[in-house]
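A quick aside before the break. I want you to see a complete sequence-to-structure record at least once, exactly as it would be stored in a machine-readable document. Don't worry about memorizing anything.
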Amino acid sequence: MKAKSAPEKIGHFRREVLITGFGGQGIVLAGNILGRAASLGDHRESTLTQSYGPEARGGACSAQVIISDATIHYPYVRNPDIVVCMSQGGFDKFAPLLRQGGTLIIDQDLVQPGKIGSDQVFSVPATRFAEEMGRKMMANIVMLGFLTAVTESVTVQAALRTVEASVPKGTEQMNIKAFNKGYDFGLATLKGRRKKAAGVKGVK
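That is the input. The structure line, written in tokens, reads:
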């Protein structure tokens, strides 16, 4: 796969990303991979902060990642450009923080977004895809691939290298397959939206 150029060419690049779900979904690992891909792969500044609910597994948790070309003076996400929700509780708590015009990504089988009608809402059956591949625990990697495709927060090469270096030994190829599953689904989603938009513009 060919890397995409950074989406912002004027001014410096900055993304505030909040990933949320429940303990056991690998939320913090996804945030760690995203941040490391940005810093080690794409040579940008990045920070990662994390929080857990009262229970390690099953409780609410979140990972906050900031990616920037400039020095990051404050590591906490206050006005996220991207919110990724892998649980209903995470959606209810954090989706309202999304800045106007930001991108909301949900696991479509785990989150009911209600009447949100923004074109910037993306859904992916990440957990279902992971289950079909035989490892439900890879849903976070599927989601990471999808996020990479639809937001271009990191390059695909940097993300893939970091996934390979971050997952347990012996699972590298399975996780790369999971990432590619989410990434390809993201590209297909974008293509479908472009076709739909072109069709609407062509209506007289």
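Two observations worth writing down. The longest strand covers residues 14-22. Residues 1-10 have pLDDT under 50 and may be disordered. We'll return to this after the break.
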